[in-house]
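stage 2 :: seqdesign
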């Protein structure tokens, strides 16, 4: 592709343009299409990823992630009492208290294994990041709806078997964060552009200034 650079020189009696065509610099990356940008949704929070884990640590991470999501929903979704996110969270904490306590201990051990004496501090930072990974504004309605459903489902899981269900439940919550904008307003390819005719200058009022 080539680009034309033009310089326009104007004087009181004439105007001239001088143009030169040069080669455009190569693109380092292929421009991303509008559709590709929209497919990712808006500001989707990043999921927390741990360093290499044991099987028990991976399950504890999934359980603690689910707990964090329901905790966030209890705080963010109180605009609708019909979702029952606060009640669901409190009941889930009581129903699965033993497994949640065990998951916390396993995760603390994970961070102590990597960070030694700073393990508890690392666990606190991990918990904060996990909470933030579900904090959303763009997809709040989607997330709250999903969290209400997951909160009811988690109460039907027998005690001691929460870890077996976390993969499916966390997937529902993560998917709810992928809020996509309305393509009609954000995709220029779907907008029909119409050129309107120019509005003529109003005719001068010849009676202005005339004495009556």
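stage 2 :: out
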């Amino acid at each position: 592709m080539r680009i034309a650079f033009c310089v326009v020189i104007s004087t009181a009696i004439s105007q001239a343009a001088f143009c030169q065509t040069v080669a455009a610099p190569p693109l380092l990356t292929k421009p991303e299409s509008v559709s590709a940008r929209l497919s990712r949704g808006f500001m989707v929070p990043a999921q927390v990823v741990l360093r290499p884990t044991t099987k028990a640590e991976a399950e504890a991470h999934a359980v603690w992630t689910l707990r964090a999501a329901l905790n966030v929903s209890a705080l963010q979704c109180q605009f609708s009492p019909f979702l029952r996110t606060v009640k669901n969270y409190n009941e889930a904490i009581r129903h699965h208290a033993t497994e949640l306590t065990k998951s916390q201990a396993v995760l603390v051990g994970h961070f102590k294994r990597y960070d030694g004496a700073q393990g508890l501090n690392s666990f606190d930072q991990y918990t904060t990041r996990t909470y933030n990974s579900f904090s959303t504004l763009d997809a709040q309605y989607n997330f709250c709806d999903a969290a209400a459903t997951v909160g009811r489902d988690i109460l039907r899981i027998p005690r001691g078997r929460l870890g077996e269900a976390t993969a499916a439940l966390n997937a529902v919550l993560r998917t709810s964060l992928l809020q996509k904008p309305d393509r009609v307003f954000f995709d220029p390819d779907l907008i029909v552009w119409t050129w309107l005719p120019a509005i003529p200058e109003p005719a001068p009022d010849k009676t202005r200034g005339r004495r009556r």
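stage 3 :: structure notes
- The longest helix spans residues 55-76.
- Residues 7-14, 24-39 have pLDDT under 50 and may be disordered.
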